[in-house]
Each structure stands twice: as C-alpha cells, then as structure tokens.
Design goal:
Small_HSP, HSP20-like_chaperone, 39% strand, 12% helix, three-stranded antiparallel sheet, single chain, Immunoglobulin-like, mainly beta, Hsp20/alpha crystallin family protein, A-crystallin/Hsp20_dom
C-alpha cells in the first residue's frame, strides 16, 4: 500500500474546476505581469565625509542625459526617464514590447550643506552626487593633550 500526501486545504476550491487555480497562479506569477507590478527604485548608498555628503545611486543601463537633479530648499530630487522604442518595418510582430524606465528619489538635506558645491557624475552604472558642506560645518580635527 502506498501513501500519497496531498496538500491540506481548508476549502475545496478545486471542486468546480481544477484548472482555474492553476491558471491564475501561473498568470499572476508570469514574469511579464510580475515585472510590471514591482516598482523598481534604484538602491542608494549615502555616506558622509569630513567635507561632503556622497550619494551613490545604482542605475545601470542609463545615460547621463537621462538624469535630472533638482535642488529645492532643503530637498534634493534625483529622477531619470528613459524610453526605448524599436521598430523594424519589414517584420510583422505578434508581440512587441516597449521599454520604459523611470524613477524619482528625494532626500532631505541638512542645514550644513553648501548649495554651491553640488556635483554629479555617472560612471559605470552608478550616479555619484557629491554635496559639499559649509566651512563652519567642517569640524577641524586636532589632538587634545591630556594634562
């Protein structure tokens, strides 16, 4: 005698149509649908040095012209938008997908920021934004002698 273990279900939902649940499970777990349901926001590293703050944003596949950086009062907003449309006139497509990437990230800036010293650079898929500090905010390091 062989024992076969079936999954425990509190409600017998397969009684009407055994294919309904498997269809919706496959449809909702399809990569086409799940990729569009997940919002993609790039990962960010924020570091502080003696003279500046550094924001590193991982955004591979973009170009410098895709980024837009705005500073308004004590808020810095980094956004990007990229559209790709490819079409070939001699082919008949039964399915064609457009690639569209956009995101917006905002960060509040402290009072110690020097707004005249903000620079951005895009290298190897990482946007590096350097925000300088005011002179009075830079702490001078010195050795204190113990008496």
């Amino acid at each position: 005698m062989a024992l076969i273990k079936f999954p425990n279900r509190t409600i017998n939902s397969d009684a009407v149509n055994p294919y309904v649940n498997s269809f919706f499970d496959n449809f909702l777990s399809d990569s086409f649908i799940s990729d569009r349901l997940i919002t993609r926001v790039p990962a960010v590293n924020i570091a502080e040095t003696d003279k500046s703050f550094k924001i590193e944003l991982a955004a591979p596949g973009l170009q410098k012209s895709d980024f837009k950086i705005n500073v308004d009062k004590n808020m810095i907003t980094i956004s990007a938008e990229k559209k790709e449309e490819t079409s070939e006139g001699d082919k008949l497509y039964s399915k064609k997908e457009f690639s569209y990437t956009s995101f917006t990230r905002s960060f509040s800036l402290p009072d110690s920021v020097n707004y005249n010293e903000i620079e951005a650079e895009y290298i190897h898929g990482v946007l590096q934004v350097t925000v300088g500090k005011k002179e009075d905010a830079i702490v001078a390091k010195r050795l204190i002698e113990v008496k």
